[in-house]
Specification:
The structure holds 2 protein chains of 2 kinds. Chain A is mainly alpha-helical. In chain A, 77% of the residues lie in helices and 4% in strands. In chain A, strands 1-4 form a two-stranded antiparallel ribbon. In chain A, helix 1 runs parallel beside helix 6 and helix 10 crosses helix 12. Chain B is an alpha/beta fold. In chain B, the strands form 2 sheets. Chain B has a 6-stranded mixed sheet with strand order 6-7-8-3-9-10, with helices on both faces. Chain B has a 4-stranded antiparallel sheet with strand order 2-1-4-5, covered by helices on one side. In chain B, helix 5 runs parallel beside helix 6. In chain B, 43% of the residues are buried. The chains are: A mainly alpha, B alpha/beta.
């Protein structure tokens, strides 16, 4: 049960990462590799500020703002210099590696002893004189774990709600229009370069926010924790679409949340079944490959069968 | 010296024209072996509410002409004024505040994975700053958009939440036309907007085009491949040839214009080309 709560907590906070990648990959139609960099950057900024004694809420928001800057950098490289988002993202992520080392003063940064969001939640829990353990089914879940879960759930659900609202405003609609058909968007008076940049800013803010929450959940940040995050996020997007489909925006946004949680549970199950932790990245990459390739391969097989049928 | 070709009979000099092109030149791949002189000095003035049809062979420069007005091509030389404003240096999205546009490809003018209502909501904000906090599809806005969609007579008002990607080519072009005119454009540009459609849809879209232009009193420049459309639509025909306006048929001559006559004019332009080429050949033989 504790493993389950842990996986769901992790799923909640990482769903912000998935949502960020959903914005760039599905709404803007771009593969944004800034993701890896801004996840680590968010963690680094939050960790550095938390050890300096900054209030966890402020530290977390500052981390998101750092992500906005990273997204803006990739966007401006694209709009002003004309370098593709794919390459621009790689450049920014590479540069951010150094930025993270400077911010954290090294490759690792422990949060032991620092006040974090889960820490505040636990204090609040005790202040409210709630019981030390919560009985779910047959197991007693410690208050620390349960309160952390609650604070992440509230934080994430609120962020998702704000984003979902935003995408339905005029500006949000303009963003989706620019990502859906740049030519039509320009003919309808939208500055598509500005919209692309806005999309990247928004997405990387969410990713950095996820990074900041992740660091607080784990109790440390390190410079390599962003590596391969975009692939994990793609896996979650794919799982979410598999479960809820792509018919409406509401479903897709809910899909990022459900998909991430489902993916975390899948990972937990795989590890429990004996998958070595070192093999996790390879397994994730293969999973994304298979998930993205399956529709194409199926269509090809179907065409082949139809052709055979037609000739006989 | 530039002498604008007045596109409306009886237009007085000094009248504020809705569209003015002055000595517009454009060359693609300039300075390479693929150099292509698309526009070689185009002058044009269109009065408000004028409806001009442009025809010409492939490569005559008619699409480039339209693109320079829309801003997707910035000309090498010359000036472009729309509604009295010099827009020569304006980028495409900025010009869209003045220009409504329908493309040749039905896929080009709409956003496929947004719904009909969402597409219309984007079009309703053409030329104004998008709101950050307001819901783009509030009940009031939805009702207005449904009303406008009803005018098309295609039943789209009952399918407001359908993604546009699910519509047929004809339905999409009709929707694009509505989107281009939802906010009244100073200039409406139609770029062979029926050439990808089947005959029935073509007929439908042409009728809708005429109705919208007439009821809204729009100033329209339409490029077409169809000689039939050039004869029956609009109050002036321009024939583009080798990057210039070679013929300008308006007034009574346009009203009496028949398909045969227009085809004859094309033939004449082509023969003139052949004469040009044989003359060039003669000069070459004499002097080289």
């Amino acid at each position: 049960m504790n493993l389950l709560i842990g996986s769901v907590s992790m799923g909640f906070l990482l769903s912000l990462l998935t949502l960020g990648v959903f914005i760039t990959y599905r709404i803007m139609g771009r593969l944004d590799l800034t993701t890896d960099g801004s996840f680590g950057l968010g963690a680094a900024v939050a960790a550095a500020l938390l050890t300096a004694g900054v209030h966890p809420l402020i530290a977390t928001v500052a981390a998101a703002a750092a992500g906005w800057l990273a997204g803006a950098a990739t966007g401006l490289i694209y709009v002003i210099v004309g370098i593709d988002v794919l390459l621009g993202g790689i450049l920014v992520t590479t540069g951010l590696y150094t930025a993270q080392l400077y911010i954290m003063g090294g490759g690792n940064h422990s949060l032991v002893g620092a006040r974090t969001l889960p820490g505040i939640a636990e204090d609040l829990w005790h202040a409210l004189r709630l019981p030390d353990t919560v009985v779910l089914g047959a197991t007693a879940v410690p208050a620390a774990l349960f309160s952390a879960f609650l604070v992440f759930a509230v934080f994430v659900l609120f962020s998702v709600w704000v984003l979902a609202r935003f995408l339905r405003t005029d500006l949000g609609l303009a963003l989706r229009a620019a990502g859906g058909n740049a030519q039509a968007a320009r003919a309808l008076g939208l500055d598509t370069g500005l919209m692309e940049t806005l999309g990247l800013v928004l997405a990387n803010g969410l990713v950095a926010l996820a990074g900041a929450l992740f660091a607080q959940y784990q109790g440390f940040a390190n410079v390599t924790m962003g590596a391969g995050m975009i692939v994990t996020a793609l896996a979650c997007v794919v799982v979410g679409e598999g479960l809820l489909g792509r018919r409406t925006l509401r479903r897709q946004i809910a899909g990022t949340l459900i998909g991430t949680i489902a993916f975390r549970l899948l990972v937990a199950a795989a590890v429990a079944a004996g998958l070595p932790g070192d093999a996790l990245k390879l397994a994730t990459a293969l999973f994304v490959l298979v998930a993205l390739a399956t529709p194409t391969v199926l269509a090809r097989v179907r065409r082949h069968l139809e052709r055979q049928e037609a000739t006989t | 010296m530039t002498v604008p070709t007045l596109a409306n009979a009886g237009a007085r000099a000094g009248d504020e024209a809705t569209l003015v092109l002055e000595d517009v030149h454009h060359t693609y791949f300039s300075g390479t072996p693929n150099e292509q002189r698309a526009l070689q000095g185009v002058d044009l003035a269109m009065e408000e509410r004028a409806f001009v049809v442009v025809v010409g062979n492939n490569g005559s420069g008619k699409s480039t002409l339209l693109n320079t007005i829309a801003g997707s091509v910035i000309p090498d030389r010359g000036r472009i004024l729309i509604g009295g404003q010099d827009v020569t240096a304006w980028r495409e999205w900025r010009r869209a505040a003045l220009v409504g546009r329908v493309f040749q490809n039905p896929m080009s003018g709409t956003i496929p994975h947004l719904t009909i209502a969402e597409n219309l909501a984007v079009a309703a904000k053409r030329g104004s700053r998008p709101g950050v906090l307001r819901n783009a599809l509030g009940r009031e806005r939805r009702r207005e958009l449904a009303e406008r969609a009803r005018d098309l007579g295609l039943g789209l008002e009952d399918r407001l939440d359908t993604p546009v990607g699910a519509l047929s080519g004809g339905q999409r072009q009709a929707l694009t036309l509505l989107m281009a005119t939802l906010v009244r454009p100073t200039m409406l540009l139609l770029d062979e907007h029926t050439s990808a459609l089947d005959p029935v849809s073509t007929e439908q879209v042409v009728r809708l085009t005429e109705r919208l232009i007439r009821s809204e009193g729009l100033t329209t420049l339409m490029v077409t491949h169809s000689i039939q459309q050039a004869v029956t639509l609009g109050d002036r025909v321009l024939i583009m040839h080798r990057g210039r306006i070679a013929e300008n048929i308006g007034g009574a001559r346009k009203r009496q214009l028949r398909v045969e006559e227009l085809l004859d004019t094309f033939e004449r332009l082509r023969n003139a080309d052949l004469v040009d080429e044989s003359a060039a050949e003669m000069v070459r033989r004499l002097y080289i």
